[in-house]
Design goal:
Elements lengths: L2 H6 L2 H11 L3 H24 L3 H17 L3 H20 L7 H22 L1 H21 L1
Helix pairs in contact: 3-4, 3-6, 4-5, 5-6
Length: 143
């Protein structure tokens, strides 16, 4: 597992969610993938149109869903965006302060999904094992 995956995911929280959700885990993780992508797009669109109010709900939703799976870095970033958006609504100003965090959001979301994929997809491990086995077979023939 990469060092970055170790810092963006609370694997104990992820394992806990996996245990609690049981057979429904894969389905619900799929919902997170779909809903999270929609939230990221909604936040980006709201930022482009300087619509702080339109940023609040998708940031809040992303924060909660990410927390459920131990994606703490993503949840923290979504929370920062939500706070700035709420303050911007209250103060009736543009959410420009959130721009650096919104720029980081898609990359972090993609990295989070990649870390989850590596952890949950048994084919990822099998492919790596297959390459190792193939390399070993080639060396065997060269002896």
């Amino acid at each position: 597992m990469s060092e970055e995956a170790e810092t963006i995911i609370d694997w104990a929280g992820f394992s806990s969610a996996r245990s609690e959700l049981g057979a429904d885990f894969v389905r619900i993780l799929g919902y997170f993938r779909e809903d999270g992508a929609k939230s990221v797009v909604a936040i980006e669109d709201a930022m482009r149109s300087a619509d702080a109010a339109a940023m609040v709900l998708p940031a809040h939703t992303l924060k909660g869903e990410a927390s459920q799976f131990g994606a703490d870095a993503l949840a923290d970033l979504a929370e920062k965006i939500e706070i700035v958006a709420r303050q911007s609504v209250e103060w009736r100003q543009s959410p420009d302060e959130a721009l650096p965090d919104v720029v980081k959001l898609r990359g972090l979301f993609d990295d989070t999904l990649l870390a989850f994929e590596r952890e949950t997809n048994p084919l990822v491990e099998r492919r790596a094992f297959g390459r190792k086995a193939e390399a070993a077979n080639q060396r065997f023939g060269q002896l």
